[in-house]
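Hey everyone, long-time lurker, first post.

I ran two proteins through the pipeline my lab uses and got sequence/structure pairs for each. Pasting them in order. The first:
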Amino acid sequence: MENNNEKPEILNRALFSYCKYPNIKFETHEPGEKIILLLRAHPFTQIYWVFNSILLLILLLSINFVVSSVLTMAQVFIVNCFGLVFIASYLWFSFLNWYFNVGIVTTRRIIDIDFSNILYKQITVARLDRIEDITSKSGGYFEAFFDYGTIFIQTAGTEQFIEFPDISYPSDAIREINKLLTRKHGP
């Protein structure tokens, strides 16, 4: 590993959005295939659902003041239980959506795993020899400050393109993919 471009290892483990050489396996892992990068959306991009949950909790607490004079304590308790279960479910499913939507770069291919809900997933795979173009898009104050952006990987022919939205350190990820492509295709 090169140390001059390495991100701090503590940051790598704590946020788990950009992991180099992770020690993991995945569903379609091939024998002898080494994982180079595991990519997730930057944690900053997930603040909206945390903020929404806090707003829902405040709304639930304010509803308690309004309905407490109209409803019995048992009914208020039931309303609170339903509200808390809804908020907890929203938090849990949002976290799972972030955690399982990953991009994986291996020594042989690039894999995009997208979960749109608990029961549906889409896996897009591109072999390294089929990759034609890699584009990074990053714009705005927050993307520059927190160093995240979107990577688009175009493949040969009519195959789908692969998109890694809002990943951490997009320029480092492109550099690693280009190293693999250079080894695969030659200089």
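...and the second, right after it:
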Amino acid sequence: MSLEIIGSIKEFLAVESGIAKTSGNEWQKQNFIVSNNDGYEGKEQLFCFEVFGAENVENLAKYNKVGDNVKVSFNIGTNEWQGKYFTSLKSWRVEKIQDEGVQEHPTETHTATVVNDSEPDDPLPF
């Protein structure tokens, strides 16, 4: 399942790193906060996304900065450890978008009207 959120980058958290117990390989991850105003009554919502891998962490900092308007594509993942469950939003794409892509408070609603020209004005067959 893949999901998307549109908002602005509010903060980058510290890079975390370590060594995997099973493989002995080094790992890196970084969390970042995206906010938007899609909450109840236009209130700010915060989302904490995770990028995993040294190259992804490097690219996150290289191509994005606080205040950028972005569309984040992500998956939701949950891990179990000693009977406790930890859920994370694992981003796999962060795209910059134009300023008009983030709506602070939507003011207009557009309704489309479909006209079917193939039906006659008078539906009676005689």
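Reply from user beta_strand_b:
Welcome! Quick read of the second one: The chain is about 10% helix and 45% strand. Helices lie at 54-63.
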